[in-house]
Specification:
About 25% of the residues lie in helices and about 25% in strands. The chain is α+β, with helices and mostly antiparallel strands. The protein has one domain. Strand 2 and strand 3 form a beta hairpin. This is Type IV pilus assembly protein PilW. InterPro entries: N_methyl_site, PilW.
Length: about 350
């Protein structure tokens, strides 16, 4: 029985297994290559789109940040602590000297000139058609065809206050009297840092001999460098210029119009907007009447874009147009920004 059962079980034979033919393999490889190529195109397109979006975001961020920085910095122009209104012994800074030269004056011998210059909150350097109308000052390297702005103000912190830099003999300091009877005779002192009570003799409102606070005098020029960076250069009393400070990179153009309050009496409202004072205007304008500025900036990307191959023009202010030539390889992305910045303290003085 057992043997018969075993004999009745059929023998298992190995089946014949067929592989892919050469034609089938080639078809599969072709389909795979088509899928890989399609995915590569999608990935490359996505990467390029992401790069374009990042460039647009960088241009937008640089332009808006530059306006924000200038708004915060320039709004303090003409602030001299509790000084009601600066007065000067001369009518210019200094008499018959070009503005560019006056901006870069240093040295203790020029302290009186600095003091007289406090009536001027700003001085400007103009440009047009890719060139500089006003001579470049010796203390900065300005990009051709861009404007520059020199401002003066006192530091917002007083010497000795927490987080305020220590007094330095390389800088000038402003002390304003808070003692009523003293203020009417000697409202302010401008002197070299480190000279102590021998120079800074003014008193607080108690008039009891307590020294009034001192503030560092900030003399600063804002400009576009040859490397397309919004920068500023501080002008110390010592004459040893510190390194320029880069505020925002990839800013290639700066144009400025000044707001003049020419009313009689002044009322803190701009009556004239112009790129520079006009002594022949009716009424004539001068730098002491500036109470604010209109700023135009042109921001750019650091790399070219395939979508900016055509020629383009950007209008910055009333009489300045920046033209970009066509480029088959692409130009950097560009965007223009503008704002008005009011000088808080000079405007308040005009209103009073």
């Amino acid at each position: 029985m057992y043997r018969r059962a075993l004999a009745s079980i059929p023998e298992s034979r190995p089946r014949h297994q067929r592989g892919l033919t050469l034609i089938e393999l080639m078809i599969a490889l072709a389909i795979g290559l088509l899928i890989v190529a399609a995915m590569s195109v999608l990935l490359a397109g996505g990467s390029q789109s992401r790069r374009e979006i990042e460039m647009s975001a960088d241009v937008n961020e640089n332009g808006r940040y530059a306006l924000d920085v200038l708004s915060r910095e320039l709004s303090q122009t003409g602030f001299y602590g509790s000084l009601v209104k600066p007065t000067a012994a001369t009518t210019r800074i200094p008499a018959d000297m070009p503005a560019a030269t006056a901006m870069c004056l240093t040295g203790v011998a020029n302290l009186d000139t600095w003091k007289d210059s406090l009536t001027y909150n700003v001085l400007g350097l103009g440009s047009a058609a890719g060139a500089n109308i006003d001579a470049d000052p010796s203390c900065i390297e300005r990009k051709a065809g861009t404007d520059a702005l020199f401002i003066q103000r006192a530091s917002t912190c007083v010497v000795g206050a927490p987080n305020c830099p220590a007094e330095s003999n390389a800088d000038a300091y402003l002390q304003v009297s808070e003692c009523g009877t003293e203020y009417s005779a000697t409202p302010m002192v401008l002197g070299r840092g480190g000279t102590g009570s021998s120079t800074f003799t003014l008193q607080t409102k108690t008039c009891a001999g307590t020294p009034a606070p001192k503030r560092k005098l900030v003399r600063r020029i804002y400009y576009i460098s040859a490397a397309n960076a919004l920068s500023y250069q501080d002008i110390p009393l010592s004459g040893a210029l510190p390194a320029p400070v880069v505020l925002v990179e990839n800013i290639e153009q700066l144009q400025i119009e000044y707001a003049f309050d020419t009313g009689t009496p002044a009322d803190g409202t701009p009556d004239v907007f112009a790129a520079a004072p006009d002594p022949l205007a009716v009424p004539p304008t001068d730098w002491t009447q500036v109470i604010g500025v209109r700023i135009w900036l042109l921001a750019r990307s650091s790399d070219p874009s395939r979508y900016t191959k055509n020629a383009a023009s950007f209008v910055l202010g009333g009489d300045t147009t920046v033209s970009v030539a066509a480029n088959s390889a692409g130009n950097p992305k560009r965007r223009a920004y503008s704002t008005y910045i009011s000088f808080v303290t000079p405007k308040a003085r005009s209103e009073s």
